[in-house]
Design a protein that fits this description.
Length: about 375
């Protein structure tokens, strides 16, 4: 409160704003740095000056602001100054700021601006200081993961450290992976762990267990607003045996998943990251699936579905020519009726282009596309 009053009433800051700062340098505002840091224009000016000033001038800035560092870390404009000092300050001053961070790690992690300072510290400080900061959250991992600010710090830690250095975070995710996977912030943390490769065998085993749990529950997660992103990550980053297991689970009801707002995205990823053999199985499974209602075969029903049409488009993107011909033939039988549907038009237009530009004569599938044209 007092800091904000000093910002509003500071005469040097007022003069700076009146003159538009054209003639000011960092040494001109000594004794008034706090007021500048708490002001939008003043903070921007200091940031610009710190980018070009000498190490001695940077140290001078730090010494004046040191008593107010904790306040600045939580300020909408002041936090940017602290981030620069963490990156460019002398070793002595970086250690001084790190001490404040260690004493207030949880408070800052959960703060809308303080979490940015913590993230910068995890990026630029020496390893021993970074480890000291993140391990202060050992008993608060779940709270941080589910917090709108704290989750960013946990994500940053996963990116910056080896997983064995933050084993307590990996364990917390492992213990609640399904709960986190369907949480708006927790799903992001799970995804960051799935993206990481691990050189430590013990932590790699834990990561694989997280992957396996997601794969075993991929049907349920695929239909969740947040869980579908975790499911997509497993298809993208898991080893082949686990990916095949996950895709087999999706193939128990491929048409239902293809018509689902969220699961359809997962099915697209399955088509994209599967190998040729499994991709063929997936497409044939969809094509041969029982019809739903009176809308004809499953493939044509998907073509007219709000979400399913994207799955069909993905199929056309990734399948080999023989299956592509099979899809085109199946759709070609009902081109007229499909044109009447809002979403069917997308596929029909694409199929018509494929039929008007068949493969070259030396392509073994050219005959298949030509025959499709005759039934369109």
């Amino acid at each position: 409160m007092h800091s904000k009053i000093s910002c509003v009433n500071d005469r040097v800051l007022s003069k700076f704003k009146t003159s538009k700062g054209d003639q000011f340098k960092i040494h001109d505002i000594r004794g008034h740095l706090l007021a500048f840091c708490l002001d939008q224009a003043g903070s921007r000016f200091i940031q610009e000056q710190l980018a070009v000033c000498t190490l001695h001038e940077t140290d001078t800035v730090h010494e004046e602001l040191a008593p107010h560092a904790f306040t600045l870390m939580r300020d909408v404009f002041g936090n940017y100054i602290i981030q620069i000092l963490l990156q460019n300050g002398s070793t002595h001053h970086r250690y001084a700021l790190a001490k404040i961070l260690m004493e207030n790690t949880l408070t800052l992690t959960l703060h809308v601006y303080g979490c940015r300072v913590i993230q910068k510290a995890l990026e630029v400080l020496d390893l021993d200081l970074r480890l000291g900061i993140i391990h202060n959250l050992d008993s608060h991992v779940t709270r941080c993961i589910k917090d709108m600010n704290g989750n960013h710090v946990i994500q940053k830690a996963i990116r910056e450290f080896n997983l064995d250095e933050i084993h307590f975070i990996v364990k917390a995710v492992h213990d609640r992976v399904l709960s986190f996977s369907v949480h708006p912030y927790g799903c992001r943390v799970v995804q960051r762990i799935l993206e990481r490769e691990c050189s430590n065998r013990d932590q790699d085993i834990v990561r694989e267990k997280i992957m396996s749990t997601v794969a075993e529950n991929i049907g349920e997660l695929s239909q969740d607003l947040y869980g579908n992103y975790v499911a997509q990550h497993v298809l993208r980053f898991s080893a082949k045996p686990l990916r095949e297991k996950a895709i087999e689970a999706l193939m128990t009801a491929p048409v239902d998943y293809a018509c689902h707002k969220y699961a359809s995205n997962v099915l697209e990823q399955a088509l994209l990251y599967s190998d040729q053999e499994q991709r063929q199985k997936m497409v044939r499974s969809i094509i041969s699936s029982p019809r739903r209602g009176d809308s004809g075969d499953a493939l044509c029903m998907l073509t007219t579905n709000r979400f399913g049409n994207y799955v069909v488009q993905r199929m056309l993107d990734v399948v080999e020519d023989d299956l592509k011909c099979l899809i085109v033939r199946s759709i070609g039988h009902r081109m007229k009726s499909l044109k009447k549907f809002k979403y069917g038009k997308h596929i029909v237009s694409r199929v018509e282009k494929m039929l008007s530009h068949p493969p070259s004569d030396d392509d073994t599938s050219s005959e298949g596309l030509a025959s499709s044209s005759s039934v369109a």
